[in-house]
Amino acid sequence: MFEGTEWDWGHDWLTSLAGRPLLGARPTQVADALLQVDPVALLEADEAVAEEAITTLQQALNQISALQQVFIEAFARAKDREWQLGQARQIEAGRVPLGTWTADDFVPSMLAPLLHLSPRSMAARVDDARRVVNDLPLTLAGALAGEVEPWRVAVVASASDLVAADRVGEFETALYAVRPGARDGGLGDAAAGALRARAERVAARIDPDSAAARVERGRVEREVRIQPGLYPGTTSWSALAPAGRSAQAWAAVCDLAADYRHADPALTVAQARADAFLDLILAQAQVSTTVVVTLSDETITTGALTAGSGLAGTLVGDEVTRVLADPTVRLRLARVDGGTGATAYLSQQTYRPGRELDRLVRERDGTCRFPGCAVPAARCDIDHAVEFPRGPTDIRNLHCLCRRHHGFKHHAGWRVDLAWDGTLTWTSPTGRDYVTFPTDRRANAA
């Protein structure tokens, strides 16, 4: 399976460090040998040796990544079989099958904790693995041989999604066709960006209707996202929007930014554009802001305020003063336990939590409580850890789950245990435990 290039760089230095022959060794064998060497010693490598090592170890990474995709597909097939068997048993027992869920809905969430990824990121990994292993044999073979890097595998898999399912094989054959002088020749040494452009041209030629389908897909999947920024007190925005309106919006931002710089030459172009971007948005809407002031039982110190939505990060310094001075801003107090950071206890003995308990659970959790999932609590369901009425509608038995992981909990065979301090332990059908914690508010306590 592993047939990467031979290890041949004309140096005996690494061989002596590794304590075994490296000439002619496969990349994965070289990687195994070098892992036994003190990395401090490896830092003495000269330029030629380091360059050859980087190349050979990349081949090993390519092979291992491709092999991992094979096992991701194996896992998915096993869950497919298990799911189909479960559905058949439900029908035989005269019960309604488990809704519209399929194994594909749960596989990413099952694998995400293993790789410390969010379920969303793992879903993309699973989709790529299934496409490569089942539909792109040339790409899989190249990766297993160490010749195609994971990022170029991902480019080919993504571009193959632009053609009809029954034409994927034709697409891959055309992409790898060696035609001297042709723009759409084989992969060669094309970097990811150039390969993406080439693969998209091949897809458009193989399936001319794909261009129109892609335009429609972009229109349907338009979105704007916001998340905490790189620095405290900042946020990061990203958007997928129609190119025409985006060009108009960008022109508006740049024009207003130019006015700002004319009025204040000390502003950089980037700063002026950021200010213009927010001002243009806020000029088109009336905004009501609710700020949660989080107080610790043990400390009353100057700190930060946390936005109630959980999306905008924290407010620090002058931002706190500005928010508190704004008469349109509503303040809400929350008390956190000094030992755990979890929001204080409140209970209610009905199935559906009341408004205050609902708000308390969302404030405590911050996000969906499945390992790695970052869906904000505001967009989650409130779920009973122990089903009602065996378990109470109580802060000690409620947690936030996004709609996908709410269904996952009830249908995928995983168990949950919610501790008194808000710690939630998930146990997979194979016995692996994954622990998630409520949002720790101590760092933001005022």
Domain count, please report it.
4
% residues in beta strands: 5-15%
General shape = globular
Structural class comes to alpha+beta
Mean pLDDT score? 79
Q: Helix and strand succession?
A: HHHHHHHHHHHEEHHEEEHEHEEHEEE
Distance between the termini: 59 Å
SS element count, helices: 16
Radius of gyration: 27 Å
Main sheet: which strands, in order across? 5-4-3-6
- Helix content, binned percent: 40-55%
What low-confidence regions span 5 or more consecutive residues with pLDDT below 50? 1-10, 180-185, 299-312
According to DSSP, the number of beta strands is 11
Profile the largest sheet.
Answer: 4 strands, mixed
Describe this structure in words.
With 446 residues, the chain is an alpha+beta fold. Helix content is 47%, strand content 12%. The chain has 16 helices and 11 strands. α4 crosses α6, α8 runs parallel beside α10 and α12 (243-263) packs across α13. The longest helix has 46 residues, at 47-92. The radius of gyration is 27 Å and the shape is globular.
List keywords for this structure.
alpha+beta; 4 domains; 4-stranded mixed beta sheet; 3-stranded antiparallel beta sheet; 16 helices; 11 strands; disordered N terminus
Summarize it.
The protein is α+β, with helices and mostly antiparallel strands and 446 residues long. It has 16 helices and eleven strands.
Secondary structure topology:
Elements: H1 13-18, H2 27-34, H3 39-42, H4 47-92, H5 103-115, H6 119-135, H7 137-144, H8 150-160, H9 168-176, H10 192-206, H11 210-220, E1 223-228, E2 235-240, H12 243-263, H13 269-282, E3 289-296, E4 305-307, E5 314-315, H14 318-325, E6 329-336, H15 355-365, E7 381-384, E8 398-401, H16 403-411, E9 415-418, E10 424-427, E11 433-436
Parallel strand pairs: 3-6
Antiparallel strand pairs: 1-2, 3-4, 4-5, 7-8, 9-10, 10-11
